[in-house]
């Protein structure tokens, strides 16, 4: 794998050459080991020789989570996305030169096992849909350590930095990406396990005692941590970066944190379990720096057609140099404001970048709020909306049945702790009007005590806070 400083500053033509070469290698030598993609191409009458460069990828129909989810007929569907070479397939499709190299440099069997045997698992973390396993070989774990070190280099971290990792201990990419990164770079790090494991008090103590320079966290929990620190009058003079991951950071949340700790830089990462790694900003206003030797990322419009460079669209991901579970032309469900190959105006790197404005595709749920008809409500819209209101300290959305009666109408509750305290008589009206205006549904707003709401969110007890809760089922 190329040195990141060299790779990330190559001219565009060279970057495209690397991508085309890796794509041809995948199609010729690895695709035969991939049960789903092998059939997918056959089903659509695409010959491997039809795919010579990343432009040709457009011939391959897009796939989505629906293709990976287990079905009644095929309960082990995710297994079809794992590269599974057997001896005969290796002999037939794997490059002879590599086999010879493996034989010369060590044990052939061990080398192939390192490359292909899945030994590590992450699960997708979607709030509503079923969890899908994504598997890593030993080679993939080494790649994950490499990308971890690329993230730290891009974000400007040095060996002298001291990291507090507040991601929960879980079989999720976020935690493991940080663990691999700190180990690979050789940075001192306390992996706290988040609110559920070490708890907020001890994490704040650690930030102070260790004189941590970097805090890494989920946005919702990170916001909770810095608010709590501020409330207790704590200072972190050495803290210079907060790096968020695992979820999108809304501009309102970013602003609220900046208001409390103006000298801290807030960088976010973007990742998806299917892409097996995370990408980071080099600056608060930069895009996410991609790894062109590992993946090809494109944006598509609603019809699934690739959009022109710089135009907004849905992020579609193709793995170029991963083993274990891999996807090709995978619709992530994330909408991005644009993708550029122009050199980064902040760090000068020439690797492609996704614009920092990324939102989940609308997730509409039908609610029966009146006897007349159901209303479609975009639940994802609550995040930027409520995080952006300065008066709101914490919030939670609940969907309930009226009087807990399954035959009754649905009710949309917004539970709010505002900065003025529980007795405030103005914020509930304001939130109600604001939500009604922006989302075209009128919620029931309940003012809460902040500690009770923090408990209800599960800040100290859940892996991820329970921001939107559907209690109808
Ligand atoms: Zn940059």
From TrEMBL:
InterPro entries: AMP-dep_synth/lig_dom, ANL_N_sf
Transmembrane segments: none
UniProt cross-references to Gene3D superfamilies, sorted A to Z: N-terminal domain of ligase-like
AMP-dependent synthetase/ligase domain location: 142-317
SUPFAM superfamilies, per the entry: Acetyl-CoA synthetase-like
Pfam family, one: AMP-binding
Designated name of the protein: AMP-dependent synthetase/ligase domain-containing protein
